[in-house]
Amino acid sequence: MELHRKPLRTPPPYPATDPFEPFAVAAVELADEGLIVLGKVADGTLAADLTIGMEMELTTMPLFTDDKGVERIVYGWRIA
C-alpha cells in the first residue's frame, strides 16, 4: 500500500467573503444517537453567547447565493 499526498482542493460550496466575517461554530452532541455534530451557529449568535451544556436546536440557514442565483442552504445550530 502506498501513501500519496494530494493538494487540498475544497469542493464547492466554500465561498470566501471579502472582507472575512467571523462566525461561531458549535460541536453539539445528539443525545439519543451519541453523535457529535459540528456546525455553524445561527447568524447573530456570538461565541460569547454560547456555554458548555446549553441546549441547541438543529436548523437550516442560507450559506450563500451562487452565480446562478441559487441559494445554498446548510444545517446549523441555534440556541434552544
UniProtKB/TrEMBL annotation:
InterPro entries: ChsH2_C (IPR002878)
Domain ChsH2 C-terminal OB-fold: 10-59
Pfam families referenced in this protein's UniProt entry, alphabetically: OB_ChsH2_C
Source organism superkingdom: Bacteria
Protein name: ChsH2 C-terminal OB-fold domain-containing protein
